[in-house]
Amino acid sequence: MTFTITVNGRKRAVDVDADTPLLWVLRDELDLKGTKFGCGMSFCGACTVHLDGVPTRSCITPVSRVGNASVVTIEGIGDSEVGKRVKEAWLAVDVMQCGYCQAGQVMTATALLARNPKPTDQDIDAAMSGNLCRCATYTRIRAAIKQAAGLPTDDKREV
Amino acid sequence: MAAPNAFEQTARARADGDCGAPAQLSRRVFLTAGLAAGGGLLLTLNMPRGADASEPIAVGPAAGAELNPFISIAPDGVVTIVAKNPEIGQGSKTMLPMLVAEELDVDWSQVRTEQALLNPLYGPQFAGGSMATPLNWEPMRRVGAAGRQMLILAAAQAWEVPAAECETSQGSVRHRPSGRSLSYGALAARAAALPAPDLRSVTLKDPKDYRIIGKFTGGVDSARVLEGAPLFGIDMVVPGMCYATFEKAPVFGSRVASANIAAVKAMPGVRDAFIVRGADPDAVFNMGLVEGVAIVADSWWHAQKALQKLRVVWDRHFASGQSTAEFERQAEHLSRQKPHSIIRSDGEVDKAFDGVHKVLEAAYSYPFLAHVNLEPQNCTAHCKRDGSVEIWAPTQNPAPGRKLVAATLGIDEDRVTVHMTRVGGGFGRRLMNDYMAEAAMISKMAGRPVKLLWNRRQDIQHDAYRPAGFHYFRAGLTAEGALTAFQDHFVTFGQGRKTASSADLPRSHFPAGFVPNLQYAQSLIELGAPTGPLRNPGGNALAFAFESFIDELAHAAGRDPLDFRLSLYGAPRVIPVPPWRGRPEPPFDTGRVRAVLELVAGKSGWRQRHDLPRGTGMGLAFYYSHYGYFAEVVKASVGPDGTPKVHKIWAAGDVGRQIINPAGAYNQVQGGVLDGLGAALHQAINIEGGRVVQENFDTFGLLRMREAPPVEVHFRISDNPPTGLGEPALPPVLPALCNALFAATGRRIRRLPIDPRELRRA
Q: Which residue of A87, A97, B325, B751 has the smallest Cβ count within 10 Å?
């Protein structure tokens, strides 16, 4: 079946089964390799993309459900002002180790800051706890989100 | 001392070559200079054909030497440095070039890095054992210094002045008396005509002049990762390739009796499906090619849909009777029998227990663990018509992979080319290359290039697991609270009479050598599942058992756990460590132990912990591994349902005189600590009917953001050669957490993962 979806502002036609997850359409039909496969069941968040700005697990989203939603991936997130700031903060803080989860982390963090420009630690916990990092770079993910938000980056949570 | 170094031993053994002792410049390699394409300087590392890369030798040009590009300087001043080791997230691709660039004296912004191909001329190329720093600290700096010396000489010749009047600064040479200056780019062609100096004769910088080493330096490829660039193994694309899935026996070692191949082949998009026969019965333990069914399709999704239709009848296998519950029964039974073997015996343990004031006994256990690299195992392989094979793989250890592919296909190793991709997490899993053998064989049988990608269930159920283990401790204290007798009957796993991979207790493990009467004994349970190294092998499990029991002993002795440890290690002194495989090992320094214990105590407020609110406790632990000394304090409490809440973690480490890249160093320590925390809280692989029960992250958990406490890291700088940070920070957090929970609740955790029910308030 042919589906036309909007990815990073461009209309793209793909000929795939209706149940094909958006993840594999992006990666192997449109050659956008930045979105990653981790678990295939929405547990890890490596495949997170935006559908109309909402962080969405592309591994369990069939292409037939995308419809007219605007899909934004890590390849396009830097075009938004918030996405650009998040990516810059990620590099300045030097968040990544292996880097495999980080596209998903950046997508979720950008969605958080787009709706909540000055998140608290609790807001960060709530937004980011669905994105696993096997290297456990959580300390720096938190710091980078705060840096992108223009907040002090030191971790004052000890109670 | 602890000093298991098991990961590094495994890494070394599996790297198919010996890496030598730390900080040694002992390769049979030398530099030569030449003209780079485009007119620049090309410094090449050379090794005579057939030489053993580990032997120390005289340095000098040899006839018939092969060349490898290592550093090149282009006329525009851009310096390209080859990163020889795979990048698994530990930052070697940034750190190793930093060492070269520092001594070459260039600006970091001039430097580009390139991933090397697998080539024996580079010597061992692996990421494991926290060995990149100790093995390369000295040689990489000397390579850079040699380049700098040649550029100075080239400038001196151009100006016809003595070289001693010339100095370098960030990519140019300056003649001090006249103030003239030339850039490295302008000098590169002239320098290329000069002989390269003896690496051992070059002068290294005074550390106070460092401009790159010690500076916070971001990962060289991080920006590209965030652009979505196709850097990882899973991202590889080869023209004409298909996608493959490979289903292996749920019970390790079972063979295919029958499979509905025809039905699978009829599924949409499926190009081929076939049974792949296993290499040999040992392949399951050696992580070679094991038996299974391959499905090759035009998309990975089609391969997965066909996989759902696949029905395989597997032969019955002896391991199908094995289960976690049965292992626990066997361990309990074995603990009451005479041990199968004695690992170490000091003094007279039995007699010593007769005279003690207090005897403590405790049984500790921990589960099997999977590595769960977030990038599932994968490999792209192209078996070509001419019989050669090209491999693109996220591997920590490419050389044995090439050997395995050659053996699996029955071809010569020089017919196999291995491209090292960025690796979506190593953790020891990718020291093994089973996925490489599978992809190569599937490509050969399908007659086309394939990308093999495991799904998460296949990844969790076909690992080389961190072995479970059972420790039956007994210890005796004098009336003064001194530890005078110590016994561990370690029940672990074996295959036949051989201890399983990473399932051993090193005879040097602490407190051996610090207690006059001590016995380590071992018994084996037969295991059908493969085991292997997980980040800090040995230490990631042993630290929990030993350092928790030490805490029990401290409390039983009525001593502060910090003071109890300080007196166990005794006065600062340097204890020689026997050579490993004939190579010198650094000594164990109790002064460094004391220093990091006191540092972490000071930073965490350990001595003031009695002021903490009721229900909040602090725990302490120390562990030495991979040449790193780490002491950690955890502050924790528990919720009403018993769920542990970690308030904060302090880590103090001593890895020598120089933190090469603080950006990577702090990240490794924080990540290692949180990795250990996640294992303690969430992780167990259970076996039932010979098969692994867990399938995905819902039942095999990783730590999540909301559970990640602040981790405060302090390095103690000591006058010792710099050593690695990928592993040594991990072990102490597990016992420190359990010791904190004891302080908070009075309940002692003796089994991992932590079961909140054991901590629930009565």
A: B325
